[in-house]
Amino acid sequence: MLNTFYHRGCSSFTQGDPGDPCLSFIDLVFIFAVAVGAGLAMADERIAIIGFVISLGIAVFFFLVALAVAPFLGLQDPIIQDRFLNQSFLIAFRYVFPFPLMVSLFGVVTGLYLEGKYRISEV
Question: How many distinct structural domains can be found in the chain?
Answer without folding.
Answer: 1
